[in-house]
Design a protein that fits this description.
The protein is built from two helices and two strands. With 80 residues, it is an alpha+beta fold. It has one domain. It has a two-stranded antiparallel ribbon with strand order 1-2. β1 and β2 form a beta hairpin.
Length: 80
């Protein structure tokens, strides 16, 4: 378990083992995400949205507006 001390200015030095595990370096950004009251997760925020390119594969065939509307109507009918 790694610990850190908060300075009088509210600054914290992230321990090197934590930085290595997150893959962050000097000038990188991190986010503090509240997972429950009084508990936060520290998440690396170093990648841009362009890094997500290619994660979702292209569909094998194009979807038409008509087929999208039919799927929407079908799901709407199930909800009733």
């Amino acid at each position: 378990m790694s610990t850190a001390t908060i300075t009088s200015k509210g600054q914290v030095t992230i321990p090197s083992v934590v930085r290595a595990a997150l893959g962050v370096e000097s000038e990188d950004r991190v986010e503090f995400i509240e997972v429950e009251h009084g508990r936060f997760e520290l998440v690396a925020a170093t990648h841009s949205v362009t890094a997500l390119k290619g994660i979702v594969r292209m569909p094998s065939s194009a979807v038409t507006i008509v087929s999208m509307n039919q799927a929407i109507a079908k799901q709407g009918a199930k909800a009733k």
